[in-house]
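Action item from last week, closing it out:
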Amino acid sequence: MEEENNEKKKKKNILLLYLKKHKIKTLLLLFFALIANTYAWFVYNRVVSTNLTAHIKSWQVTIDGAKDEELTFEIDDLYPGMPEYNDTVSLTNDGELDAEVSFSIKSIRILDETYTVGEDGYTVESLQKKLDDEYPFVITLESSTDYVSSGGGTTDLKLYVTWDFGDGDEEKDAIDTYWGEKSYDFTKNNPDTPSLEIVVNVDVSQVNN
Protein backbone atom coordinates (compact mmCIF):
# COMPACT_ATOMS: atom_id res chain seq x y z
CA MET A 1 0.00 0.00 0.00
CA GLU A 2 2.85 2.35 0.93
CA GLU A 3 4.68 1.46 -2.26
CA GLU A 4 1.57 2.35 -4.28
CA ASN A 5 1.34 5.77 -2.61
CA ASN A 6 4.99 6.41 -3.25
CA GLU A 7 4.48 5.52 -6.92
CA LYS A 8 1.60 8.01 -7.22
CA LYS A 9 3.67 10.76 -5.57
CA LYS A 10 6.53 10.03 -7.93
CA LYS A 11 4.25 10.35 -10.99
CA LYS A 12 2.76 13.58 -9.63
CA ASN A 13 6.23 15.07 -9.10
CA ILE A 14 7.23 14.13 -12.63
CA LEU A 15 4.07 15.85 -14.02
CA LEU A 16 4.75 19.03 -12.00
CA LEU A 17 8.36 19.05 -13.17
CA TYR A 18 7.18 18.72 -16.79
CA LEU A 19 4.70 21.56 -16.41
CA LYS A 20 7.29 23.83 -14.82
CA LYS A 21 9.78 23.00 -17.54
CA HIS A 22 7.36 23.74 -20.36
CA LYS A 23 5.44 26.59 -18.71
CA ILE A 24 7.66 29.31 -20.14
CA LYS A 25 7.56 27.72 -23.58
CA THR A 26 3.74 27.54 -23.44
CA LEU A 27 3.45 31.16 -22.37
CA LEU A 28 5.75 32.21 -25.23
CA LEU A 29 3.58 30.33 -27.74
CA LEU A 30 0.44 31.99 -26.39
CA PHE A 31 2.15 35.40 -26.56
CA PHE A 32 3.22 34.99 -30.18
CA ALA A 33 -0.23 33.70 -31.14
CA LEU A 34 -1.82 36.78 -29.59
CA ILE A 35 0.62 39.09 -31.40
CA ALA A 36 -0.09 37.31 -34.73
CA ASN A 37 -3.87 37.63 -34.32
CA THR A 38 -3.57 41.28 -33.36
CA TYR A 39 -1.44 41.99 -36.45
CA ALA A 40 -3.85 40.11 -38.71
CA TRP A 41 -6.77 42.15 -37.33
CA PHE A 42 -4.78 45.36 -37.87
CA VAL A 43 -4.01 44.46 -41.50
CA TYR A 44 -7.66 43.47 -42.15
CA ASN A 45 -8.98 46.61 -40.50
CA ARG A 46 -6.56 48.72 -42.50
CA VAL A 47 -7.69 47.14 -45.79
CA VAL A 48 -11.38 47.60 -44.95
CA SER A 49 -10.80 51.21 -43.93
CA THR A 50 -8.97 51.89 -47.19
CA ASN A 51 -11.88 50.45 -49.20
CA LEU A 52 -14.46 52.44 -47.29
CA THR A 53 -12.68 55.73 -47.92
CA ALA A 54 -12.16 55.13 -51.66
CA HIS A 55 -13.72 57.83 -53.86
CA ILE A 56 -16.78 56.76 -55.83
CA LYS A 57 -17.46 58.80 -58.96
CA SER A 58 -20.90 60.34 -58.94
CA TRP A 59 -23.56 59.68 -61.57
CA GLN A 60 -26.11 62.45 -62.07
CA VAL A 61 -28.02 62.87 -65.31
CA THR A 62 -31.14 65.00 -65.46
CA ILE A 63 -33.70 65.27 -68.26
CA ASP A 64 -36.20 68.09 -68.52
CA GLY A 65 -39.73 66.76 -68.04
CA ALA A 66 -38.73 63.09 -67.93
CA LYS A 67 -40.65 60.58 -65.81
CA ASP A 68 -39.24 57.08 -65.29
CA GLU A 69 -36.78 57.66 -68.17
CA GLU A 70 -39.63 58.51 -70.53
CA LEU A 71 -40.71 61.69 -72.28
CA THR A 72 -44.23 62.38 -73.50
CA PHE A 73 -45.09 64.77 -76.32
CA GLU A 74 -48.64 65.82 -77.13
CA ILE A 75 -49.93 67.53 -80.26
CA ASP A 76 -53.43 68.93 -79.93
CA ASP A 77 -54.29 69.56 -83.58
CA LEU A 78 -53.27 67.36 -86.47
CA TYR A 79 -54.30 68.38 -90.00
CA PRO A 80 -52.94 68.81 -93.53
CA GLY A 81 -50.89 71.96 -93.97
CA MET A 82 -50.45 72.45 -90.21
CA PRO A 83 -47.50 74.59 -89.03
CA GLU A 84 -44.49 72.49 -88.13
CA TYR A 85 -44.68 71.22 -84.58
CA ASN A 86 -41.34 71.18 -82.80
CA ASP A 87 -40.24 70.69 -79.22
CA THR A 88 -36.81 70.46 -77.58
CA VAL A 89 -35.83 68.67 -74.37
CA SER A 90 -32.37 69.00 -72.80
CA LEU A 91 -30.39 66.32 -70.99
CA THR A 92 -27.61 67.46 -68.63
CA ASN A 93 -24.79 65.35 -67.21
CA ASP A 94 -23.63 66.87 -63.89
CA GLY A 95 -21.85 63.71 -62.76
CA GLU A 96 -18.21 62.68 -62.97
CA LEU A 97 -18.63 60.01 -65.66
CA ASP A 98 -19.29 60.61 -69.35
CA ALA A 99 -22.54 59.19 -70.71
CA GLU A 100 -23.99 57.80 -73.90
CA VAL A 101 -27.62 58.53 -74.63
CA SER A 102 -30.12 57.33 -77.19
CA PHE A 103 -33.79 58.11 -77.80
CA SER A 104 -36.43 55.93 -79.43
CA ILE A 105 -40.21 55.95 -79.76
CA LYS A 106 -41.73 53.60 -77.20
CA SER A 107 -45.38 54.12 -78.09
CA ILE A 108 -47.56 56.39 -80.16
CA ARG A 109 -51.26 57.13 -80.12
CA ILE A 110 -52.65 58.50 -83.36
CA LEU A 111 -56.24 59.64 -82.80
CA ASP A 112 -57.83 56.54 -81.23
CA GLU A 113 -55.20 53.98 -82.27
CA THR A 114 -52.22 53.15 -80.02
CA TYR A 115 -49.07 51.24 -81.06
CA THR A 116 -46.49 50.14 -78.48
CA VAL A 117 -43.04 48.63 -78.94
CA GLY A 118 -43.04 45.12 -77.49
CA GLU A 119 -46.77 44.61 -78.06
CA ASP A 120 -48.45 43.00 -81.09
CA GLY A 121 -45.00 42.21 -82.48
CA TYR A 122 -43.90 45.82 -82.87
CA THR A 123 -40.22 46.71 -82.64
CA VAL A 124 -38.71 50.19 -82.82
CA GLU A 125 -37.89 49.59 -86.48
CA SER A 126 -41.25 48.12 -87.51
CA LEU A 127 -43.16 50.88 -85.74
CA GLN A 128 -41.11 53.53 -87.48
CA LYS A 129 -41.74 51.81 -90.84
CA LYS A 130 -45.49 51.78 -90.16
CA LEU A 131 -45.43 55.50 -89.46
CA ASP A 132 -43.44 56.17 -92.64
CA ASP A 133 -45.61 53.98 -94.88
CA GLU A 134 -49.15 54.44 -93.60
CA TYR A 135 -49.52 58.04 -92.43
CA PRO A 136 -49.27 61.32 -94.34
CA PHE A 137 -47.51 63.26 -91.61
CA VAL A 138 -43.80 62.93 -90.80
CA ILE A 139 -42.41 62.44 -87.29
CA THR A 140 -38.71 63.18 -86.85
CA LEU A 141 -36.77 62.48 -83.67
CA GLU A 142 -33.14 63.60 -83.42
CA SER A 143 -30.51 64.48 -80.81
CA SER A 144 -27.64 66.93 -81.07
CA THR A 145 -25.16 64.29 -79.85
CA ASP A 146 -25.23 60.79 -78.40
CA TYR A 147 -22.16 61.42 -76.19
CA VAL A 148 -22.55 63.69 -73.16
CA SER A 149 -19.41 64.68 -71.29
CA SER A 150 -19.30 64.85 -67.49
CA GLY A 151 -19.28 68.05 -65.50
CA GLY A 152 -22.23 69.76 -67.19
CA GLY A 153 -22.29 68.40 -70.73
CA THR A 154 -25.66 68.55 -72.50
CA THR A 155 -27.53 67.13 -75.44
CA ASP A 156 -30.84 68.26 -76.94
CA LEU A 157 -33.61 65.95 -78.10
CA LYS A 158 -35.75 67.51 -80.81
CA LEU A 159 -39.11 66.28 -82.05
CA TYR A 160 -40.64 67.54 -85.30
CA VAL A 161 -44.05 66.74 -86.76
CA THR A 162 -44.90 68.04 -90.24
CA TRP A 163 -47.85 67.49 -92.56
CA ASP A 164 -47.46 69.06 -95.95
CA PHE A 165 -50.52 69.56 -98.15
CA GLY A 166 -51.39 70.62 -101.66
CA ASP A 167 -48.55 69.27 -103.79
CA GLY A 168 -50.89 68.28 -106.62
CA ASP A 169 -50.42 64.53 -106.32
CA GLU A 170 -53.91 62.97 -106.49
CA GLU A 171 -53.04 59.90 -104.42
CA LYS A 172 -51.45 62.01 -101.71
CA ASP A 173 -54.30 64.50 -101.78
CA ALA A 174 -56.78 61.63 -101.26
CA ILE A 175 -54.77 60.31 -98.29
CA ASP A 176 -54.54 63.82 -96.82
CA THR A 177 -58.29 64.27 -97.17
CA TYR A 178 -59.04 60.91 -95.55
CA TRP A 179 -56.81 61.49 -92.51
CA GLY A 180 -57.75 65.14 -92.30
CA GLU A 181 -61.42 64.25 -91.93
CA LYS A 182 -60.64 61.53 -89.35
CA SER A 183 -58.57 64.01 -87.36
CA TYR A 184 -61.33 66.61 -87.51
CA ASP A 185 -63.95 64.14 -86.29
CA PHE A 186 -61.71 62.93 -83.46
CA THR A 187 -61.01 66.48 -82.22
CA LYS A 188 -64.71 67.34 -82.43
CA ASN A 189 -65.69 64.30 -80.37
CA ASN A 190 -62.70 64.49 -77.96
CA PRO A 191 -61.97 68.20 -77.47
CA ASP A 192 -59.78 67.61 -74.39
CA THR A 193 -57.66 64.81 -75.84
CA PRO A 194 -54.56 65.49 -77.97
CA SER A 195 -54.74 64.12 -81.50
CA LEU A 196 -51.20 62.74 -81.28
CA GLU A 197 -49.30 61.45 -78.24
CA ILE A 198 -45.73 60.19 -78.52
CA VAL A 199 -43.86 58.48 -75.66
CA VAL A 200 -40.08 58.46 -76.12
CA ASN A 201 -37.78 56.11 -74.26
CA VAL A 202 -34.52 57.64 -72.99
CA ASP A 203 -31.60 55.20 -72.63
CA VAL A 204 -28.58 56.58 -70.73
CA SER A 205 -25.46 54.52 -69.95
CA GLN A 206 -22.13 55.28 -68.29
CA VAL A 207 -18.91 55.56 -70.26
CA ASN A 208 -16.01 54.27 -68.16
CA ASN A 209 -12.98 56.39 -68.93
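Closing note: The chain has three helices and nine strands.
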